[in-house]
């Protein structure tokens, strides 16, 4: 489902990712950790086709990121959803919860009755089913975060990329609900990459893959599908190109 | 096709979502269109007054009373074929007598002037209006004067040199001032409407970014915005035309008294259509430019700034 091989990425000659290689199968969950500036966001942006792949090869949901054309990016984003930490920037505050969640389904041209069924299912999981008619601006921060989560899952994506998805959630109630949702979609084959510093997520999801990035390199992982950084190999890697 | 209608519905829904922003944009478009329309109305009025009523060369031709009426009628037909011909008002002796009676009082010529019944002394006359070509005006004037004076039975030809001079002057003003003024006003209309709509589109930047993030194609994002921009231009200009028409109905005759005798004229249909088309097209263009080509996932870069600590790993 996700195949990341020998990926390097530089910003103005400064390496952000160094020889990253890992592989995730359908339905696997990977927790991405590491200090600030370790390259987690760069990795996620590359997978979301927000940055062009400079070196190496990457494949996600059937799209080869090293060969992807701009016209294919919307198609990729219909199969790969993203949950932002700063969720308020990606919600339309005046619009209702229903319309915010419905947005990607509308873009995909999904019929209303199917869309309604999916929205009902996802919002019931996240405890939002009685707030569908409310404008997002009237919701609390945690509820808005749940709207963003619901929107990411409502399309039945093949991959979900999440950047600190629990940042504003109620620690008891909502983290538990979020994990239930993750597990529910995992059963249906959704692959997830979650950048987080929330220990609760890792503790409650011990079977999840974990990958630690430091200075753009993979320094730890708990499964064989990820290759740890090899300084010798990296010495021959291309550098300097932005 | 259903997707297209969905996008139109989406455009209308977008308008209802931000009514105040739309109203303010519409007000700005209406105001600018109205001011431009006002300018065009003034220019149209001046143009009509000077170009139509004075921008002409008028000849009055008198025939001898003894001239053959049949021959004169044939000559009038010939005059209609002359270059620059615009209008001819003819008077046979009988018509001239009736005109004279009309000015004196009611009744038939037999009643008022019974002694003239069989010996009408009035000549046949014609008031001929030309709108000559400016380039060879002097030559044209000589030729026409000579032609009219040489007509069989013609006794006298007089022209209106003052009207000619004013007409010539106005034609110069028309070519040097009027047309550039219309172009200038249209340009202002375009710039203001285009920029107003473009600025209004900036408020949609977040929605556009979100749509990109959830996999919307460019056309899916653009079409509703182009419809909104075009509608703003069209509705704004239509409203300004209604206001202008309303104003025109109230001031049409306000200057129509001696010695000014100026009838304020509404811009002609071509200008009205232009006033509708230009803001509409520029509304669409403003939306296109306002939307620009945002790099994919600008929101992503802004939103994705998590600084994940390694607490989780430490656990």
Set out the fold topology.
The complex is a heterodimer of chains A (242) and B (315).
Chain A: E1 2-11, E2 14-24, E3 29-33, H1 40-47, E4 55-60, E5 63-64, H2 73-79, E6 80-83, H3 97-108, H4 112-125, H5 141-153, E7 159-163, H6 173-187, E8 191-195, H7 199-204, E9 209-214, E10 217-221, E11 226-227, H8 231-235
Chain B: H1 2-17, H2 19-53, E1 57-63, H3 69-79, E2 85-91, H4 93-104, H5 109-112, E3 125-130, H6 137-149, E4 154-159, H7 161-202, H8 205-213, H9 218-251, H10 269-291, H11 298-303, H12 311-314
Antiparallel strand pairs in B: 1-3, 1-4, 2-3
The major beta sheet of chain B can be summarized as: 4 strands, antiparallel
Poorly predicted runs of chain B: 294-315
Percent of sequence in beta strands of chain A: 25-35%
What is the number of beta strands of chain B?
Answer: 4
| Oligomer description | heterodimer
Percentage of residues in helical conformation of chain A = 25-40%
Structural class of chain B: alpha+beta
Strand order of the largest sheet of chain B: 2-3-1-4
Q: How far is the first residue's CA from the last residue's CA of chain B?
A: 55 Å
What is the succession of H and E elements of chain B? HHEHEHHEHEHHHHHH
**Which two chains touch over the largest interface?**
A-B, 57 and 35 residues
Outline:
Chain A has 242 residues and is an alpha/beta fold. Chain A has eight helices and eleven strands. In chain B, 29% of the residues are buried.
Describe it for me?
The complex is a heterodimer of chains A (242) and B (315). Chain A is 33% helix and 25% strand. Chain A has 242 residues and is α/β, with parallel strands linked by helices. In chain A, helix 3 packs across helix 4 and helix 3 runs parallel beside helix 5. The relative contact order of chain A is 0.22. The mean pLDDT of chain A is 85. Chain B is of the alpha+beta class. Chain B is built from twelve helices and four strands; from the N terminus they run ααβαβααβαβαααααα. Chain B has a four-stranded antiparallel β-sheet. Chain B is elongated and about 95 Å long. The C terminus of chain B is likely disordered. The chains are: A alpha/beta (242), B alpha+beta (315). Chains A and B meet through strand 3, helix 1, helix 2, helix 3 and helix 7 of A and helix 1, helix 8, helix 11 and helix 12 of B.
């Amino acid at each position: 489902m996700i195949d990341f091989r020998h990926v390097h990425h530089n910003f103005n000659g400064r390496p952000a990712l160094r020889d990253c290689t890992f592989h995730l199968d359908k339905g696997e969950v990977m927790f991405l950790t590491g200090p600030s500036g370790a390259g987690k966001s760069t990795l996620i942006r590359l997978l979301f086709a927000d940055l062009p792949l400079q070196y190496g090869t990457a494949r996600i949901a059937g799209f080869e990121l090293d060969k992807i054309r701009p016209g294919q990016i919307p198609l990729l984003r219909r199969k790969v959803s993203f949950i932002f930490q700063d969720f308020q920037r990606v919600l339309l505050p005046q619009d209702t919860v229903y319309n915010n969640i419905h947005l990607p389904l509308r873009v995909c041209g999904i019929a209303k009755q199917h869309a309604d069924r999916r929205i009902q299912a996802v919002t019931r999981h996240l405890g939002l089913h009685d707030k569908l008619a409310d404008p997002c601006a009237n919701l609390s921060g945690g509820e808005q975060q749940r709207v963003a989560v619901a929107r990411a899952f409502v399309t039945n994506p093949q991959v979900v990329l999440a950047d600190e998805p629990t940042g504003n959630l109620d620690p008891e109630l909502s983290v538990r609900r979020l994990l239930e949702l993750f597990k529910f979609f995992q059963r249906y084959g959704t692959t997830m990459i979650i950048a987080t510093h929330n220990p609760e997520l890792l503790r409650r999801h011990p079977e999840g893959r974990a990958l630690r990035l430091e200075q753009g390199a993979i320094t730890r992982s708990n499964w064989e599908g990820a290759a740890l950084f090899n300084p010798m190999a990296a010495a021959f890697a291309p550098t300097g190109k932005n | 096709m259903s997707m297209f209608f969905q996008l139109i519905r989406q455009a209308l829904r977008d308008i209802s979502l931000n009514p105040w922003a739309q109203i303010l944009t519409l007000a700005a478009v209406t105001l600018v269109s109205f001011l431009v329309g006002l300018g065009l109305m003034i220019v149209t009025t001046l143009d009509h007054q000077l170009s139509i009523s004075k921008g002409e060369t008028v000849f009055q031709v008198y025939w001898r009373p003894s001239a053959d009426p049949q021959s004169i009628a044939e000559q009038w037909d010939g005059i209609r074929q002359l270059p620059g011909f615009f209008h001819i008002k003819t008077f046979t002796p009988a018509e001239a007598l009736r005109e004279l009676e009309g000015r004196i009082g009611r009744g038939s010529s037999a009643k008022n002037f019974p002694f003239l019944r069989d010996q009408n002394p009035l000549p046949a006359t014609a008031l001929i209006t030309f709108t000559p070509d400016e380039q060879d005006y002097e030559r044209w004037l000589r030729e026409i004067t000579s032609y009219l004076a040489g007509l069989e039975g013609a006794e006298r030809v007089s022209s209106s040199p003052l009207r000619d001079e004013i007409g010539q002057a106005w034609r110069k003003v028309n070519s040097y001032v009027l047309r550039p003024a219309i172009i200038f006003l249209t340009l202002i209309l375009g710039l203001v409407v285009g920029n107003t709509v473009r600025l209004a589109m900036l408020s949609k930047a977040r929605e556009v970014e979100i749509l990109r993030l959830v996999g919307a194609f460019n056309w899916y994002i653009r079409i509703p915005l182009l419809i909104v921009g075009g509608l703003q231009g069209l509705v704004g200009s239509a409203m300004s035309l209604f206001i202008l028409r309303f104003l025109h109905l109230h001031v049409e005759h306000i200057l129509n008294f001696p010695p000014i005798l100026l009838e304020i004229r509404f811009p002609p249909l071509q200008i009205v259509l232009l006033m509708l088309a230009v803001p509409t097209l520029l509304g669409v263009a403003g939306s296109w430019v306002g939307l620009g080509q945002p790099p994919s996932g600008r929101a992503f870069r802004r939103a994705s700034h998590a600084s994940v600590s390694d607490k989780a790993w430490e656990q």
